[in-house]
Design goal:
Layout: H1 2-41, H2 56-82, E1 102-104, E2 109-111, E3 116-118, E4 123-125, E5 130-132, E6 137-139, H3 144-164, H4 166-173, H5 179-186, H6 188-193, H7 199-231, H8 235-239, H9 249-257, H10 261-264
Antiparallel strand pairs: 1-2, 3-4, 5-6
Helix pairs in contact: 1-2, 1-7, 2-3, 3-7
The protein binds zinc ion (2 copies).
One zinc ion binds near residues 104, 106 and 117.
C-alpha cells in the first residue's frame, strides 16, 4: 500500500511538474487557431458583420506571419529545454580556483563566478539567471539565447493577437456597455456555466481575454529581461544590486546571442557561437553591491 501510494504520489508530482508546459502549449495553439480563424473567416461573432473582404494575398501574409511566430516560439522553447546550462560537461579545472569561485556541497565541486546551484534542477548552472517554472529548466549561459528569442516571439505574437482580437471586443461591446457584455469579458467561464452565453461566444471572449492578460504579463517579463540584457546583468545580480560584468550594449548582445547576434534571433537554427566559455568573465565594475 505504501509503495502504491508512493507511485501515485510520484505520478501526480510528475503531472504537476509538466502542467505549466501543457497549459502554455494549449494556450499558444488555441490563440494561433483563433487568430487564423479571424483571418480566414473574418466574422468573429456574427456572420453578417463582415467588413471589407481581405484579398487572398493579404490573408496569406497574415497566416505566414502567425506561423513564423508560432514556429519560432516552439522551436526556441524546445532548444531552450534541450540545451543544458549546467556545469555538466564543462571543464572547470584549467587555471584553478580564482576570485569569486565557491564550493558547492551538493555537486561537490568548485564553481566559477555567476554560477549557482539550482535545487529544482539539482545541479550548478553556469551564469545562472533563474529557474523557469513554465519549462522546468534553468536559464543559464548556454540557453539564454533561446529563452530571450522565445520571449521576443511570445511578446510579438501576443501583441499581434491582441490587435487582431480588438474586433472581438468591439463586437461584444457593440450591444453597449451592459452588465451582460462586461461580465462576458470579465468572467466568461461563469457566463458559460450559468448558460448566459453560447460556447462559441465564450471561446472568443476567453481567448481575447487571454491575449490581453498574457500580453501584459509577457510584456513585463520581456522588458525586464531586455533591461537586464542592456546592463549585462542576471536576475540574481539585479537582486543583489551588482553589475560588474557590463561590457556595453553591443558586447552584451554578442555575449548573449553569440557572434551572429544581429541575425540569429530570427531563427534558432542560425548558428551563433558564444564568445565566452561561461566560466571566465571580464570584470568591468565593482563586485560589491552598488546600492
Ligand atoms: Zn551545485
Ligand atoms: Zn533550475
Amino acid at each position: 500500500m505504501t509503495s502504491f501510494a508512493a507511485t501515485v504520489f510520484r505520478k501526480v508530482e510528475s503531472t504537476c511538474y509538466h502542467l505549466p508546459v501543457i497549459f502554455n502549449t494549449f494556450l499558444v495553439f488555441s490563440i494561433t487557431g483563433e487568430v487564423s480563424y479571424l483571418v480566414l473567416v473574418e466574422a468573429p461573432l456574427q456572420a453578417d458583420q463582415k467588413r471589407t473582404e481581405w484579398s487572398s494575398r493579404w490573408k496569406s501574409m497574415h497566416l505566414l506571419a502567425q506561423y513564423f511566430m508560432l514556429c519560432n516560439i516552439c522551436w526556441n522553447a524546445v532548444l531552450f529545454v534541450r540545451t543544458s546550462p549546467s556545469i555538466k560537461g564543462a571543464f572547470l579545472g584549467g587555471d584553478g580556483v580564482g576570485h569569486g569561485w565557491r564550493y558547492c556541497y551538493a555537486c561537490e565541486t568548485h564553481t566559477p563566478p555567476r554560477c549557482s546551484h539550482c535545487y529544482d534542477c539539482k545541479v550548478c548552472v553556469l551564469r545562472r539567471d533563474h529557474h523557469c517554472v513554465f519549462f522546468g529548466q534553468c536559464v543559464g549561459f548556454r540557453n539564454y539565447r533561446y529563452f530571450l528569442s522565445c520571449l521576443l516571439f511570445m511578446w510579438s505574437g501576443l501583441l499581434y493577437a491582441t490587435l487582431m482580437n480588438a474586433e472581438v471586443f468591439i463586437v461584444i461591446l457593440k450591444e453597449g456597455v451592459t452588465v451582460h457584455s462586461v461580465l462576458l469579458l470579465l468572467i466568461p467561464w461563469v457566463m458559460l456555466i450559468s448558460g448566459q452565453v453560447s460556447a462559441h461566444a465564450f471561446a472568443f471572449a476567453f481567448i481575447a481575454d487571454t491575449c490581453v492578460v498574457g500580453f501584459l504579463l509577457v510584456s513585463a517579463f520581456f522588458f525586464f529581461h531586455l533591461f537586464l540584457l542592456f546592463r549585462g546583468q542576471t536576475t540574481r545580480e539585479w537582486y543583489s544590486s551588482r553589475r560588474p560584468y557590463n561590457l556595453g550594449l553591443l558586447e552584451n548582445l554578442r555575449h548573449t546571442f553569440g557572434s551572429c547576434w544581429y541575425l540569429c534571433w530570427l531563427c534558432p537554427l542560425i548558428p551563433s557561437p558564444l564568445p565566452g566559455d561561461g566560466i571566465h568573465f571580464q570584470v568591468t565594475g565593482s563586485l560589491e553591491p552598488t546600492r
